Amino acid sequence: MRVHICAVGRIRNGPEAALIDDYRTRFDRTGRALSLGPLALHEIDDRKGGWEAEASGLERAVPKGAVTVALDERGDRLTSPELADRIARWRDEGAGDLAFLIGGADGLAPHLRRGTGGALSLGRMVWPHKLARVMLCEQLYRAASILGGLPYHRD
Ligand SMILES: C[S@@+](CC[C@H](N)C(=O)[O-])C[C@H]1O[C@@H](n2cnc3c(N)ncnc32)[C@H](O)[C@@H]1O
């Protein structure tokens, strides 16, 4: 199952880019034996068009038929093993693509705040979109390490 992050805003250089690259590489390496990945990033321009343009950019970036999960602070608060279980279930049910959606400064348009795979919260506080992307990449790597039986996650 291919995994996608469709996110408003561009991250070029800096600490967030380095962390995202690191977790993405680790996810791809660990996921290969688990039929997970690669992890693709799709960035939507946040400089023109406002909310509606961002929403249609996100919709265009999502592969046809993908299970979609919105990142939203009002979403489901899962443990890391619960997220890993959900990802394994979508994979085992035959989903070809899994796409996570991250909004920009104004958040996701209301109709995108819950995907076909629900909404995922990283806690009740609001994080900058760049940090939300880093945290999601880390949780994806953590999920792969849990499913692969690696000693990275400790309860
Ligand atoms: C700066 S936040 C936007 C906050 C905006 N006020 C809202 O109502 O969504 C940018 C994006 O980061 C993600 N994000 C921020 N905090 C989050 C959290 N606690 N859980 C899940 N996603 C979060 C969401 O995708 C959000 O659209």
UniProtKB/TrEMBL annotation:
Pfam families: SPOUT_MTase (PF02590). It comes from the Bacteria. The keyword Secreted does not apply. Keywords: Cytoplasm, Methyltransferase, rRNA processing, S-adenosyl-L-methionine, Transferase. It catalyses: pseudouridine(1915) in 23S rRNA + S-adenosyl-L-methionine = N(3)-methylpseudouridine(1915) in 23S rRNA + S-adenosyl-L-homocysteine + H(+). GO terms for molecular function: rRNA (pseudouridine-N3-)-methyltransferase activity. S-adenosyl-L-methionine binds at residues 71, 103, 122-127. Belongs to the RNA methyltransferase RlmH family. This is Ribosomal RNA large subunit methyltransferase H. The gene is rlmH.
